[in-house]
Amino acid sequence: MTVPAPARPAPAHGGRTVLLGTVSSDAHTWNLVYLQLLLEEAGHRVINLGACVPEELFVAECHRHHPDLVVVSSVNGHGCTDGKRLATALRADPALAAVPIVIGGKLGVDGQLTGMQVNELFAAGYTAVFDDGADRDRFLEYLGRLELVAAGGPG
Prior knowledge:
alpha/beta; Rossmann fold; disordered N terminus
């Protein structure tokens, strides 16, 4: 006998649907658990794809769930390299061209991103980059601004 999975709760008033996962080479999951709880506490519906998510799966799940935001977290130091490939795959799909994509965590193997690497992530299609050590309030402020823009308010 199979038990059906419980239905995901609808987003709270003003909440967004967020697709969350790591880059294809990153097997870490506690960062995803933390971000899921943080986003849900802020009233958002989170679809957590887990660790080691191939680019093709991110694209397919975007088509399946129509997220308002894609959040990519990485702590293995390869977020910049793998993240550029992921953003390129998402932006290559015309249906996903306008979906905001953010990336954060330990994105460089040296622990710090250079200005050039940040520029490369933006050029690949990210709308925000949060390097290791960025505080959660800055991330939540970004989400608040994103909601205002999505709702047609000032931003």
